[in-house]
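Co-fold these.
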Amino acid sequence: MERMDKLRPEIVRLIAAKERRRHKLAALPFVDKVRVVVQMQQMVAPVLRARGRAVRVWALDNSNPVGQK
Amino acid sequence: MVNFASRMEKTLQVLNALERDGVLSRYAIGGAMGATFYVEPVLTFDLDIFVILPQTARGLLTLEPLYEALRARGYTEEGECVNIEGIPVQFLPAHNDLLLEALAEARQTLYEQTPTRVLRAEHLAAIAVQTGREKDRERVRLLLKQASLDDNYLASVLARHGLEARWKEWTS
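Predicted complex below.
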């Protein structure tokens, strides 16, 4: 793998932005994190089901995507 | 404003009722959802609930009375889980000293308006080390990076439960 100090500046910036987003997600209130988990379940479930794995997407009454009220 | 409990909140209310009724002695959220309390959201399809069960007359550690109480409330088993208000809950009995300690020292918190408990981040890390699967390594990595671990407390947990060597191996 290419070393960080040899990466182009724009790539370094992108990686740093990604890291900042992960820390921002980590700082969300737990209730919002649960909503994000359900959104991930919704995205991944069709793929897993196609592979034959039975999964249940959690039913949350107020599962609006985070940031959308 | 309409104030309605989410399914997750209802699930936790059912767990609180089970504890109040003595069906289980104590519970706390662990696993991926427990980790999610401290770090970025982690994909999971089960809500792992660690439980201390009341001892049966014969001293057996069995989930059957808990499942029976849930069936009586209309919640059915789905594989290894019980579907409680649309959320598959997997109950994991505390079967060793680390898990008993983790439950005793779990953090009290609120989910919306409902009180609940989550295992401490240091215990989640120690449990991951003890369990030792590949996904547990990833959990340890995330907790180290994103959770505010109390280093002294973590060191004491690892020492008490003989996990220092593997911790060093995983984190060096």
